[in-house]
Write a structure and sequence with these properties.
21% helix
Length: 178
Amino acid sequence: MSAREAYVLLEDGARFDGLGVGAERPAVGEIVFTTSMAGYQETVTDPSYAGQLIAFSFPQIGNYGARADAMESDRVHARAAIMRAAVDRADAPGAVAGWCEWLIDWGVPAITDVDTRALVRHLRDAGSMRGGVFESIPEEEARALIEAEPAMSGRDLATEVTPTEPIVLEPTGGSGGR
């Protein structure tokens, strides 16, 4: 996993430095956090996180790699992953790829080595807000990208996350559909 200098910038000016480990492109949107201890892949593929950059409060994310059966939808809906300690293990049982490798394959920016505890406390106190994950972009340019991002309030995200074609799921066993 090659890491590059990166940072998280919030619309109120708060900055959190780290290392880029995902797709090398900027991501802007509403920054939110999750306190889940597992289910990181399920979180980023959950349509309810559309337009959002997710800060994971649990310290290590990626321990069991990425799995085909962990998809909550047909694609990634979160715009970025913000972590304290990203783990890129492709050798976990059932893993199809390492976590960071999987994020890169999906084109998702990600940052590690961020003080997520401080970030979560800041968001808890100030409220969710727009922000971004940036690499190789001056802070003034990053601020302009954040300011150009529409607020989440009033946005019709259902049209963005709804598949264009029906998805038919086959039974996986268990209770026989009861």
